[in-house]
Amino acid sequence: RYLYSINGNIASIQKLRFKFDHEEVVDLREYDINTLTGVLKLFLRELPEPVIPFSYFPEIERAICSQEMNEEQIVNTIKNILQSLPEPNKMTLEYLLIHLAKVFKEKDENQMDELNLSIKFGPSLLGTLLDIPKQIKAIEILLKTISHF
Fold first, then answer.
1. How many whole angstroms separate alpha carbon 28 and alpha carbon 33?
2. What is the 3-state secondary structure (H, E, C) of 115-149?
3. Torsion sign across C-alpha atoms 16, 108, 79, 120
4. Alpha carbon 109 to chain centroid, angstroms
5. pTM for the whole thing?
6. What is the pLDDT of residues 75-110, one digit of tens each?
7. Per-residue three-class SS string for 42-99
8. Nearest CA to 51 among 91, 102, 83?
9. 13 close to 38: Cβ distance less than 8 angstroms
């Protein structure tokens, strides 16, 4: 319950981060869920730029705010934008979205609906240039683009 809302033990998070940073073999079964989610949040938070780089924001915001496109057109526009991401960003985003789609599917159990996913992941994916309503819509649309990767 409340996945990504409860912080893991900081010492365990740092220990696991150290292992990842030094490319050590890690058995994730050795760590509790809050440590694992904490490491993921820390990794995303410490990126020098969001997973979707700042230079893509104007196009994404235009698509999200468009009054002229229907939802399918918006999803296709966002999909095309995402396909042009640098390969490391695209791969990171793909894996993250697959994970978030699984988390969202269990929203009744883990309390991670669009709003909570936006609060926890919006800044890491989209930076802080988009306000919360736009981040919510963006996360919603991003979750719909998964099948397009």
1. 9
2. HHHHHHHHHHHHCCCCCHHHHHHHHHHHHHCHHHC
3. negative
4. 19
5. 0.81
6. 899 999 999 999 999 999 999 989 988 898 898 998
7. HHHHCCCCCCCCHHHHHHHHHHHHCCCCCHHHHHHHHHHHHHCCCHHHHHHHHHHHHH
8. 91
9. yes
